[in-house]
Amino acid sequence: MSTVVRPVDEAHAHHLDAVDPLPPRRADFHVPPATGGAFTETAYLAGNSLGLQPRGTRAAVEQELADWARLGVEGHLEAGRPWKPYHEFLRDPAARLVGALPAETVVMNSLTVDLHLMMISFYRPTPERYAIVVEDTTFPSDSYAVQSQARLHGLDPGRAVVRLRPRPGEDCLRTGDVLAFLRREGHRVALVLLGGVNYLTGELMDIPAITAAGRAAGAVVGWDLAHAVGNVPLRLHDWGVDWAAWCHYKYVNAGPGAVAGCFVHERHLTDRSLPKLQGWWSTDPATRFAMGPDVDPVDTADSWQLSNPPILAMAPVLVSLRLFDEVGIAALRERSIRLTGYLADLLATVCADLPARVITPADPQRRGCQLSVRVAGTTAAEVCARLRHEHGVVADARPPDVVRFAPVPLYCTHHDAWRAATALAAVLSSGTLSYRTLSSGVPSTGPGERRDA
Ligand SMILES: *Cc1c(COP(=O)(O)O)cnc(C)c1O
């Protein structure tokens, strides 16, 4: 979308929704009622934080509860979807979503746990090669995880963990700078662990280029795909990614704390020298119930599993992955580029007049659907509270000053995007926020002024 659309043009938003070649699957989701504003439903732009509940989820969970009530322990073999191999039902759709071979994919645990399990195998520091490279704005859990992994190996995290920063005055990393760093310093890097899409800025990293450069430097390259999966197309196998982990509760909509996913490249699957933490689900299912004292290894990503799968938590993942199979991530991405482009145009118009600016890359190839707005003179939390209570717009605050808007292509409309931009303009220009002196680089004509009142 290249034309700049005035934020007041609600009719144009409706028009774009009417002519959209892939109508959103909004009817398949529970859209929360609005707690304020002129509309009965929220404009839900927080699917990057917690995706909405698909309408099919309840029945899928209830089916497992019913099978448990009816069958007790026999449900392991006799449930409509037998529990014993339950994780195998999720393998193929998860593999399709991330561009992996089924054998490379396993759905298990939660994301941070999977990061640790992967690092037990793939972070093997030596005196010469010990660094873990993350982005400076890595998600806190990832930061704590890599620091604790360094300590586990007796290393000082201050020395072992390298945090890549954007250039002064810039918000996002440049691919070229990451590649140059890996060429220059790669000899001391044991593991590169970046976010595929940065949770704060919404920047989509060049996963194939960075993976190739990291591996060429002799490092292992893992990716945290929490904000990438279900958001952008991925081809983990073809890109040669060593390993990856992601959660399913953001863009994949599988519910709070949903079971996570993990990818290990085929070339590592037969390497029995890799250190692993193991449990009874690591062993070959054919001999698992012989209950012998030793693991019978399998050469798939399943060998990183520990425990029997949490069925009640996995049923929603199955429902959600099915939706992605039905719509297809490629078609979703096309719609996402249009919808996010529309919101980006609206926000550019709004922010030109206000103490706020979009920090997400303007190039659609360098972002997914999330747009992050840095606000000045107020807090992101205050802005989000007012968006929600005064306008029924749900966005997401990251302290101190970043408001994240994700027009999720599965269920958001152009009208939702219009509501978000219009509400942001209203909140930031209302004059009741306590503006301080604006920081440099924030274009503004001052509070209280709007072109499109
Ligand atoms: C959401 C997110 C997490 C969350 O970790 P959990 O273990 O699922 O609680 C971790 N890392 C990143 C990059 C995230 O975006």
Automatic annotation (TrEMBL):
GO MF term (any one): kynureninase activity
Organism domain of life: Bacteria
Protein's UniProt keywords contain Nucleotide-binding: no
Membrane-spanning residues: none
A Pfam family: KYNU_C
Chain positions found as N6-(pyridoxal phosphate)lysine: 250
Residues given in the record as pyridoxal 5'-phosphate binding sites: 111-112, 139-142, 224, 227, 249, 280, 308
EC number of this enzyme: 3.7.1.3
Catalytic activity: L-kynurenine + H2O = anthranilate + L-alanine + H(+); 3-hydroxy-L-kynurenine + H2O = 3-hydroxyanthranilate + L-alanine + H(+)
Tagged with keyword Hydrolase: yes
Cofactors: pyridoxal 5'-phosphate
PANTHER family linked: KYNURENINASE
The protein, known as: Kynureninase
Gene behind this protein: kynU
